[in-house]
Amino acid sequence: MRLLTFLLLLVLAAFPARAEERVVNFYNWTDYIDPAVLERFEHETGIHVRYDVYDSLETLEAKLLAGHSGYDLVVPTSEPTFSRLVRARALELLDRDSIPNLANLDPTMMKQVASSDPGNRFGAIYLWGTTGLGYNPDRVKALIPDAPLDSLDLLLKPEYAKRLQPCGITLLDSAIDVFPPVLRWLGRDPNSTDPKDLAAVETALRAIRPYIRGFVGGGAVEQMASGETCLALDYSGDVIQASVRADGAGKGVHVRYVAPKEGAPLAFDMLAVPADAPHKAEAMKLINFLLQPDVMAAITNKVSYPNAVPASKPMIKPEILNNPSIYPPASVAANFFTVGPVPPDIARARSRMWLRLKAGD
Asked: Which is higher by pLDDT, 339 or 52?
C-alpha cells in the first residue's frame, strides 16, 4: 500500500497543478461598453471578463461599502459615489507602473476630477458627460412655438412647464444631479450648502411639481425614444442614446440634447478597483487596455459618450465627433461646472427634501 501511495505521488508530481483561471469581474453601467472591446481584451491577454451591469449608483455603492462584492473593476460617477468611496477607503490605489496608458488621459479633465480624488490616486476617467435637457423639438414647438430651447427656463418656469405637461416631463430621480443645475439657474453657487439656497431650490421645484409626470432612472432613454415624454432633465449620453434609438425606429420621433446656457454640471465616470477586489492585477491590466486611444474610440463610437483620451479623436466617427451635443464647442464648455463633495448633513437634508418633492407633500 505504501508503495502504491508513493507511486501515485510521483505521478501527481509529474503533472503541475492546473493554473488558476485568470479573470476580471467588471461591474459597469447598463449599455456602457462595446462588447467587441472585451472580446479583444480576452483574446490579447487570456484574461476572461465576467461582466455585470447596474442602473443606479445606489446599487453600486451599497455593494462596495458592504464589502466582499467580488468585483474587480467598477465605474462609479465622480460625485457623489466615487468621492465617497475614496473617503471610505473602499478603493485600491492605482498601480501606475501597470497602467502606463494613464498618460493618455486629458490632464485638464484629470485636474477637474481631482476635487473628488485628490492627486488622481484612485481612478481614471472612463467616459464623461453633462446633465441638461432632452427634448422632442416637434412636440415642444407645437405647444410653445417660441420655446427657449437653450435654457432651463423651459423646465423651471411654471408657465412653460404647464404648457408642456400634456406631452410629458420627467426629472432624473437623483437629488445630487438635479439640485446643482437648479442652483445655477437661480444664480446661486451650484455647490452651495446654505439652507436658504436649498430652500430656494425646493421652492422652484415645487412650483413645477404638478406638471412632472415622473422621476426616472434607467427608463428615461426608452421614454424619450418612444415619444412617451417630450422634455427631461437627464444625462447627455442618455439623451443622445435616446436620439439614436428614435431615429433607428423610424417612427417620426426626434430627440435632441442641449446643455443649458446657464451652465451644465460636468460628470466623470471613473475606472476604479475595489480595495477588496480578488483580482487586482487583472483589473489594472484591463484599465490600461481600455485607455488605449483605439479602444476608447470604439467605446465612444458604440455608446455615444465622449471619452477623455484626446488621441482617440481621429478614430471617432465624424457624426459623433462633430456633434456639439457630444463634443461641445469651447464656448459651450466654458459654462460647464463640476460638483464637489456634499457634507453628510447636507446630503441628508437634500434627500429629505427630495422625498417630500416626489411625494408631493
From this structure: 52
The DSSP bridge partners found for residue 233 are 133, 171
Q: Are residues 137 and 242 in the same domain?
A: yes
Quick one: CA dihedral 36, 41, 46, 50, positive or negative? negative
Tell me the pTM.
0.83
The predicted-structure confidence for 65-112, as pLDDT tens digits, reads as follows 898 999 999 999 998 889 989 999 999 999 999 999 999 999 999 999
Residues 327, 330, 332, 336: what is their CA dihedral angle, to the nearest 10 degrees?
Answer: 90
Q: Is residue 10 part of a domain?
A: no
Burial 346-357 (b: 16+ CB within 10 A, else e): bbebbeebbeeb
Distance of CA 191 to the CA centre of its chain: 19
Cell of residue 86, nine digits: 475614496
* 175 and 230 within one domain: yes
Check residue 17 and give its pLDDT. Answer: 38
- Integer Cα distance of 190 and 145 in angstroms: 30
Domain CATH for 158: 3.40.190.10
d(CA 188, CA 201): 10
Total number of domains in the chain: 2
What is the distance, to the nearest Å, from the Cα of residue 331 to the centroid of all Cα atoms in its chain?
23
* pLDDT value for 222: 86
